[in-house]
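Here is a tokenized protein:
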Amino acid sequence: MILALLSACTEAPAPAATVVTHTTPETAPDMVLVGVAGLRSDSLSRSSDWFFEAFAGERGVVYANAYAQSPSTFVSLGSLLTGRYPSAVPLCGFPSDPGDTAAQAPWCTEVPATVPTLPGVLALYGYRTALVTADVHGAERLAPLFQDAIVASRRWEDRATDWERVRTLSEAWWNEDATRPRLLVVAVSDLDARHAPALRARMGLDLAGQGGAPTRIDRPTVIDAYQQASRSAGRAVKGLLDSLRAGSPRATWAAVFGTNGINLGDAAVPAQALRDRSWNDLLLDRTLHVPLALIGPADVPPARVEAQVVELVDLLPTLLARGGAVVPAGIPGQDLLAASFATDPAATAYGEFGDMLSVRSGTRLWSVRAFFHNRSALDPELTNFVLDYRPDAGKYALHDLSGDPFQERNLLESDPEGARRMNDLLVQLRTGPGAPPEGALDARRIWELRMSAADGYW
């Protein structure tokens, strides 16, 4: 369905795009990344189809199984821009704005200056870089990564994204100087119903309590409102890309994606299926599984769909390769467009949020919640928890998404060996590419994490 929306091509899948290994500032491509918070991929709402409806005829690749590294918009964007898993940056929680002196944000709510980033590396190769944001929590703490930062609207304003303003501000920056290659990152919160009152009202959702748990759900109303909002967002993103690419002297690569999914209540499983646990007790496929499309210039093969599990951290090596830049060492992602990219049914996607960790491998999703009150995923006790594996259906869940897309059946007890293998895989990721950097944690910092309000929960 997604392929039909993106391209009318019915031929066999085309080979991956040619790797760009040598460029100069004169020949390097422009790059545009557009992330929409709350845009998810799931079998019920099929929001990817509605979102990509506007992109018929584009060229590139759609990744049907792309995963964000966190359901937190700020953490997901920080992970994407560094190409690292959140704890490996390290990032944690929801930050206060830098000017908010009443709130205390811990040391891990900013990207350290020593960590290479997508805009930082491309700037070394002559790129101009800018971030344009609308209603994105934590945007002020991502702004220092770019040469220019433009705020179209402050976070959580009581209205939908003003796409006309986003487009006008983006065009103004884009057209200031076309003599150098450009990297523009646009991040909006169009589909994040938690912080979009107008969308929430159209869904008929009453959100109560700190966690924003839905107390009243009319599923058809929620789905219809979400689908229409996804379609509207897709048209807006397509209009933005068209306006930037029009008359540009350079080839342009664009990445369009959901920064994170969100549980709207529409796909919530019956409470008894999860033994009366609330909707945010475990990382869910629908909060991490997001749409992702890489859209290329005219010489790129017609659109194809890639079914392999991929991650948003893959965007950094992919885009650096397009710009002819050297990829920093030690990142977990891969160049999705490289000739060496191989379809691997065992490819994994790692996620973390608060005291929760997850990994998808193939069609299976393993999720863990330690039930540590007021803890960040950075806390070393969470690592100890997965190392000391003690099967408990209240804290561990194994799902086969091919036959159970809404995660209604926990396979922990029926497939204990499969559960153990998935936990072993999670341990490898948590103690490897997902581990906090050496020296990042000490007694004082761990205490600060546990005392801070920015603990990573909704």
Q: What stands out?
A: Residues 2-7+29-322 form a domain with the Alkaline Phosphatase, subunit A fold (CATH 3.40.720.10). Residues 219-245 form the longest helix (27 residues).
